[in-house]
Amino acid sequence: MNFLTYLMHLAGSGAIAYYSASQIRDLKTRPNVLAGFQLAESGSVPFLSALSDRAVAEGDTWLAEKLAKHALDETRHGQIFAHALKQLNKQVIDFKSQPETTSTSKSKQQRSPFFVAYFEGYSAEQLKPAAIDWDVFMASTYILELDASKDFTRMANVLPDHEPTSRNLKLGMLSIAQDETGHAAYLYEAMMRRMSASQVQQLVDEWRTRKVNAMLAMISGILQRNGQTRSLVQDGPPSENNSELMVA
Fold it and tell me: What are residue 147's phi and psi, to 5 degrees?
């Protein structure tokens, strides 16, 4: 990674960290942030499970086991965020009950500027579990997991300790951050098993640069929307025990 990219990485990470911290700390915006995390974490489970099955079929039992564990962790993460939403008497919107939209407008709504930029040059077909290049999966996911571990830690640390719901969420997010660190570690090891250290570094630098470009696209999108985001939550049933903690 060249020096300019490094500076852009620091600046972009700082801007996203500030925005994320303010969103998770504010009780008005926190539910939408939690819903986004729940959808992202739970949504990755089928992908990781399919990759685990593929690794078994290809005879790589070590990778298959790591991917299966990764899928289990993401399932738990989704449950932690769902529980945090429940404590706020919220839940993720039932999108199936939403009014139908045209396929074109629906496609545009679902496209994330971040991931469009991050995977620029790759088609949807190339990114499916059965087709994705292992090097692409490992390097791209390594960067995301490594950064997520730091992001979740930063967001957890801005949550107050004096209020039970926030304290429970803080502990849950710190647990998730620890898992993300472990995911990044096995993905790095997986790359080292497949190629030389210099090749791994080159691949990591490529995806770090992509991440910088994706963050800039994300920041641009936030500014264009004046910080407004699509609502992902709806009212849920009242929580019976707001002091209950779910980490394990």
Answer: -70, -35
Compute the radius of gyration of the chain from its Cα atoms.
19
Please give the model's pTM, rounded to 2 decimal places: 0.88
Q: For 183, what's the count of Cα atoms within 13 Å in the CB-facing half-sphere?
A: 30
CB 138 within 8 A of CB 193: no
Could you tell me the two tokens for 170?
Answer: 């803080």
Per-residue pLDDT tens for 148-174?
999 999 999 999 999 999 999 999 999
pLDDT in tens, 194-229: 999 999 999 999 999 999 999 988 888 777 776 567
Report d(CA 164, CA 155) in Å as an integer. 16
Cβ–Cβ < 8 Å for 80, 174? no
Please list, in sequence order, all residues whose beta carbon lies within 8 angstroms of the beta carbon of residue 225, skipping any fewer than 6 positions away: none
Q: Indicate the residue type of 209.
A: T
* Residue length of the chain: 248
